């Protein structure tokens, strides 16, 4: 998720996961994140490569499976 899309006051994917996701109303059926390993190719094809790398690391966190 591109950092510009985080709710106001949240600057990292970790903050987004901890503060926003638990408060989503019932019924959300899909949530898309763009995952990427930290490779030169990822940064070449996307100016947001670092955000995708951060998404990848957050998705590995065990609590993320609760969502």
Counting H and I runs of at least 4 residues, what is the number of helices? 3
Q: How many strands, which pairing sense, and closed or not: the largest β-sheet?
A: none
Q: How far apart lie the N and C ends?
A: 16 Å
Taken as a percent bin, the fraction of beta residues is under 5%
In percent, how helical is the residue content? 25-40%
Inertia-based shape: globular
Oligomer: single chain
What radius of gyration results from the CA coordinates? 12 Å
Give the SSE order as H and E letters: HHH
Mean pLDDT: 73
Structural class: mainly alpha
| Number of strand segments | 0
Question: What does the model show?
Answer:
The chain is an all-alpha fold. The radius of gyration is 12 Å and the shape is globular. The two termini are 16 Å apart. 39% of the residues lie in helices and 0% in strands. The mean pLDDT is 73. The protein has a domain at 34-67. The protein has helices at 13-20, 40-45, 49-60. It is built from three helices and no strands.
